[in-house]
TrEMBL record, chains A, B:
The keyword Metal-binding does not apply. Belongs to the XFP family. Gene3D superfamilies: 3.40.50.920, 3.40.50.970. SUPFAM superfamilies: Thiamin diphosphate-binding fold (THDP-binding). One of its GO terms (molecular function) is aldehyde-lyase activity. This is Probable phosphoketolase. Residues 12-370 form the Xylulose 5-phosphate/Fructose 6-phosphate phosphoketolase N-terminal domain. GO terms for biological process: carbohydrate metabolic process. Its EC number is 4.1.2.-. The keyword tRNA-binding does not apply.
Length: 799, 799
């Protein structure tokens, strides 16, 4: 560091910023400990201290330090900065800083900017009826919770895409750095385009410890860290120490350098200079855990050790010696240099804070609904498959969807507010029409023979479901739109991220000041029934079970049976907000059932009788209801009706198709749920129902167990039987095929004649014949015969 | 590379190894394409070619290359090597090599070592009734499937722990390297002890492409890769090229160097030289995707590009020009230099293969049940909590479990076949007694003030659920035992890994030759009801919903209500094999119900009537059944009975407690399921059942919907309501508290007198009183009063 560099901060400014930092630290400690006496105007007494001490001190002073220094940069450069607080447990720091800058009191007027406000601020923290101990939806300036660790950097990149004027300062704890998703996130720089995207400034905060252990990176030396991050393509800067004033000077200088680097990278790229992947700056900040807190308590090391992780001084209410230590600690921040007699931040410190929406707690980037612009959507009917009669066309559902998505990309090209994410499966899922309009985002070298790779491409492909999910979360939480296409089985990789996002949305919806953000849309293809070629490890329809555990307000599950219903469903989902929409649809050539007009009506209802498919056209109550949800179950149901029509012509069959799974739930439990009267009108009150379902059968029972006719509902679905086999054999293995379904009908409809039992025998014979074709391992394999229409057996590349 | 180095392989040996490699490549192509004419004795005709072409060629020649070279090293050094095939899609390679070395035919005698065997080998691949296209349980020598990518390296480390004589050669594709779990796995070297553990040799196979995209690492230059892996603490070696003979020489030399490095690291460490974290070798192998395959097809680049990923020449059955190309390609391997006229591998090539169990397809490390030694378990009653009467003691359940686990560690110290994994939560989950016996494994620098860190420690703590899960999978699949303790909410992070492991076990159980491996045991603590302090993001009981989707043979879920039942459950689970056991138990001080004798009886049954808790001691049928599963629901149920006993004394209540959740399922669906008669005897055929459940309520409905009395079962559980509040408020928010339960009873039992409605009003008043204590955000916060016995409100560090 040269003298010139050090000039980033005058001595006077260093002292000022230190005072601001002390104020933030004081307010952080106060939140953890105090019920009352917020400015220590009286000696600290037991009754001033919370009976239950909660919160995470260890990471907080470092978070406050970074926040204070970013404030300076923002004021000087008028930059928009979004602060991602990876160590979300450092909630007290985010709350303290947003209070200091005034946003907290603006959003929550009861928490004023004076002594009474401070008292309430302290009291509410991690308190019944109060606020969580993490950065949470309730926290101004946050799009990131951080209770479950791993997603800070991927959220940061998601926020930076297509926000060219934004710098996302992303603090990553060294605990979080050990997680898989975070470890993969460093590669975000291979996708970030300096022309159209903003910048991410990762700040790896090494305070050395997790809850009860040192961290791996905390114990790595600077040489190793430098190698590692240079290997990842960054330019690392180190800020290390414990003594506040020198640390302020180094941090200010370093931030200036980093922001200069960012500016020069962007200027060069935007001026059209050939860049390749820029070497973006990254800061490694080594500071003691629990910095400025007690060095020792009861003779045990605290500052700079894991004992500082949460509450460094325990039992401060009960233990007088501890209380004295706490009071010394808090008074050590020198309150008279921070607040006036009324508890207001002193004017010279308030002057350190940016103004208006430039404040990190107030930035609209952290309340993305404020920036949301409706997506332009074409008329989906333009992409509809022509269906002259039910079953009269064969099409790949997702291929039409790809054409529709290409048009969405085209219409919103200028707005740059729509992206498609996928783990290298966009082609495989047959959405390749999007490449007529855009490219895959790519900042690594590009070879002449490469296919649709370019900086600024709007399709993001990386072999990590975690990155796809996290990027799209960051992208939608900052107000933009998108779709994540994924193999159905492997979307379980992000179960936990889905959980956290659903929880975030649930709480956000309860906060008036949070504007609605675009929905998170999943398109799950390459689903369980058509992973016959990849085998058992690729066969799992359980994500929707996981999804429906979440709050009804937030989640939607759709199972469109063909191309036109898929188009209508995607179009609908892209117009919604504050939700998580899950669409499951096949990509293989399959029969088409509904015209676009029929699809419109059917999808609007979400469920309905397919009169053309059944045999009860006279309007009387049927003998049996055959229900289906999902493309393959729908096909098998219709084939089963066909068999029954031939073999047991007297049978009156009603076919009910379900697109919107939530219609099955009670109306009181889900806004899309049918009333009991409507449900009974479809499923009857007493007739057998044979339900062919895409997923695990018990999900249907779970959704319908309160319905009148539930005891008559007999569900076939995936029962965890699968291997590498034919598509038809997949349904046979799980008793979901046309013959099993037809036999189920015959078994459950009372009073059928002898023709029915003959038919049953004929179906059983068909199944035996089928089994003969699928021989056991090691024996001779026969040819596959072509009686499994309409399943295609030709493999296509890229599955 | 110097001349001396090159001498690892004579010219003659290079040619021999090349011929062996060609044989493996030929057999790989044959599996993808051929139905018949396996040795091309006739010109290739359409009918010789499979009608559906499946399989992944791109990665396979590289996998074969590595396999062939490892064979040489094994023969020369008599080392045990386990081959982890990260690109599991390269199944044809693993199958080809294990056939060449003879293990395939030994395990599957129908697939002989001659022409007919080759024909069957080809035919069965990715064929109905045949074998999957990935390395799978069916594949000899594999403990790793690799359909879902990300877990190769973490499995490798898990296999290497406590196997000091083993080298795990772990091939990592550059696609897989983009995943989060893989990215975090590089840090395994911070935990691997050269004294007691074996070695992991990562082989990063850069063939440059995924399905339809280049890979990030494939486009990084050697300088960046070297920096990256040196940063991670490895010593990288590069093997790069396309020309086979020079590549054989470099690979041989490099492998010799790596094995030399491994030997010298281990010798030094085992001789007691102070080591620190060794710099283990790592190989970066750059070879073309689809190496030795067609360079172009239809004028489009194939070799060295993503078009080689799966089937490089499509429609070879239908398209004659393609068929000619295929035949040229296959004949290019020069069959007469590989096989004799009968299709047997030529003797000079067979001589290149190791013998007996040294063959990688035959190594017992890949069939871990063969190495399984029963875990020594102490008498768990020794650790039992003294319970003078139900509710007569307060204890932390997991603390006793920790004492039991410490003794397990002690008893098996010499065998070194038991480990405890956890994401930095072993203390937090109150299992800290284990540190009386062992340490945390740690190879990074250790400071004097550190707490129980040491190389060779038997507790593995890293802030990554993925690593904990993957290490324990690798550890148990190689025949050793363990337990993974985790926060309940965050175990969803490994949902997908659980899935894949459950699928692996399901298929393995069907294979006679696979010996049973120890079960995978989860202990989920810090559960939903006691995350009142950490808030909503930490509250999720849905993992068990996910688990019960898997095959009944494989999964078990236990909800022990107190310390003694937890002890008995853990002890039982540690004695099982081929299963996944999930135990959910609290860590907070809580009332104890059963003596160790009672716990033994109760857990053996898995479910039972707690006569002492109910009011129907006269043996008659009760008015109502109050069922409970989980520690907090059990407490609330008992408190509710207490209230009802006081307020509605005439009510006959039966209390049923469920430890083993699987007892609720029909007997036909799960081996632990009660018969309907037994279920009816417990739950009655017609009385109301108020079921207080630990998880989402619909799981109970799902498990019981076929039972006689299902329509009377009314379940309370977590309905996704939570925040930072008191423990008691958590149950109130979800209607699971004593007052709601008591009101439920009154509402559902017909014919109650006026005292009951008075009681209901009293309970409602209590809830209103409670709500007054938990005020809404921003308003004044009251003190917490101490009327929510016996929930403790004192926070302890480390939660």
């Amino acid at each position: 560091m040269t003298d010139t560099d050090a000039a980033a901060l005058s001595d006077q400014d260093a002292v000022l910023i230190d005072r601001y930092w002390r104020a933030a630290n004081y307010l952080s400690v106060g939140q953890i400990y105090l019920l009352d006496n917020p400015l220590l105007k009286e000696p600290l007494a037991a009754e001033h201290i919370k009976p239950r001490l909660l919160g995470h001190w260890g990471t907080t002073p470092g978070l406050n330090f970074i926040y204070a220094h970013l404030n300076r940069v923002i004021r000087q450069r008028a930059t928009d900065v979004l602060y991602i607080c990876g160590p979300g447990h450092g909630g007290p720091g985010m709350v303290a800083n947003t209070w200091l800058e005034g946003t907290y009191s603006e959003i929550y007027p009861l928490i004023g900017d004076d002594e009474d406000g401070i008292r309430r601020l302290f009291r509410q923290f991690s308190f019944p009826g109060g606020i969580p101990s993490h950065a949470a939806p309730e926290t101004p300036g946050s799009i990131h919770e951080g209770g479950e660790l791993g997603y800070a950097l991927v959220h940061a990149y998601g926020a930076a895409f297509d926000n060219p004027d934004l710098v996302v300062a992303c603090v990553i704890g060294d605990g979080e750095a050990e997680t898989g998703p975070l470890a993969a996130s460093w590669h975000g720089n291979s996708f970030l385009d300096p022309v159209h995207d903003g910048a991410v400034l990762p700040i790896l905060h090494l305070n050395g410890y997790k809850i009860a252990n040192p961290t791996i990176m905390g114990r790595m030396d600077d040489t190793a860290l430098r190698q590692l991050f240079e290997g990842f393509g960054y330019e690392p800067f180190f800020v290390e120490g414990r003594d506040p004033l020198p640390m302020h000077r180094v941090m200010a200088t370093t931030l200036d350098r980093c922001f200069d680097r960012i500016a020069s990278i962007q200027q060069a790229a935007r001026a059209g200079e050939p860049a390749g992947k820029p070497r973006w700056p990254l800061i490694v900040l080594r500071s003691p855990k629990g910095w400025t807190g007690p060095r020792e308590v009861d003779g045990k090391k605290v500052e700079g050790f894991w004992r500082a992780h949460q509450v460094p001084i325990a039992e401060a209410r009960e233990n007088e010696a501890h209380r004295v230590l706490l009071e010394e600690w808090m008074r050590g921040y020198k309150l008279d240099e921070l607040f006036d007699i009324d508890g207001r931040l002193l004017p010279e410190l308030r002057a350190l804070v940016p103004r208006g929406d430039k404040r990190m707690g107030a930035t609209p980037y952290a309340n993305g609904g404020r920036l949301r612009r409706a997506l332009k959507r074409p008329d989906w009917h333009r992409f509809a498959v022509d269906v002259p009669c039910p079953g009269g066309a064969i099409a790949e559902s997702t291929r039409s969807a790809g054409e529709y998505l290409a048009e969405v990309l085209r219409l919103n090209e200028e707005a740059r507010n729509f992206r498609v994410m996928g783990p290298d499966e966009t082609n495989s899922n047959r959405l390749n029409a999007v490449f007529d309009v855009t490219n895959r985002a790519w900042m690594e070298p590009i070879e002449p023979y490469d296919d649709h790779l370019a900086p600024g491409g709007r399709v993001m492909e990386v072999l990590s479901e975690h990155l796809c999910q996290g990027w799209l979360e960051g992208y939608t939480l900052t107000g933009r739109h998108g779709l994540f296409n994924c193999y159905e089985a492997f979307v379980h990789i992000v179960d936990s991220m889905f959980n956290q996002h659903a929880k975030w949305l649930k709480v956000s919806r309860e906060l008036d000041w949070r504007a609605a953000v675009p929905s998170f849309n999943y398109l799950l293809s390459s689903h369980v029934w058509r992973q016959d070629h990849n085998g058992f490890s690729h066969q799992d329809p359980g994500f929707i079970d996981h999804v429906v555990n979440k709050k009804a307000d937030v989640v939607r599950v759709y199972l469109p049976p063909d191309a036109n219903t898929l188009l209508r469903t995607i179009d609908h989902c892209l117009g919604t907000h504050n939700r998580i929409n899950v669409i499951v649809a096949g990509k293989q050539p399959a029969p088409q059932w509904l015209t676009s007009q029929q699809a419109e009506i059917h999808c609007a209802a979400g469920i309905g009788i397919w009169e053309w498919a059944g045999t009860d056209s006279d309007g009387a109550e049927p003998d049996v209801v055959m229900a289906c949800a999902g493309d393959v179950p729908t096909l098998e149901t219709i084939a089963a009706v066909d068999l029954l029509r031939q073999h047991v012509p007297e049978l009156k069959i009603r076919v009910v198709n379900v697109v919107d799974l939530m219609t099955l739930q009670p109306h009181e439990e889900h806004p899309h749920g049918l009333t009991d009267a409507d449900f009974d009108a479809l499923f009857t009150r007493s007739k057998p129902v044979i339900f062919a379902f895409h997923g695990y059968p018990w999900l249907i029972h779970r959704l319908t167990y309160r319905r009148t006719n539930h005891h008559n509902i007999h569900v076939r679905g995936f029962k965890e039987e699968g291997t590498t086999t034919t598509p038809f054999d997949m349904v046979v293995m799980n008793d979901l095929d046309r013959f099993h379904l037809a036999m189920d009908v015959i078994a459950r409809v009372p009073g059928l004649t002898g023709t029915a039992s003959h038919a049953k025998q004929a179906f059983r014979d068909k199944l035996i014949e089928h089994k003969l074709y699928v021989c056991r391992k090691g024996q001779d394999m026969p040819e596959i015969r072509d009686w499994t229409w309409p399943y295609q057996t030709a493999a296509e590349a890229g599955d």
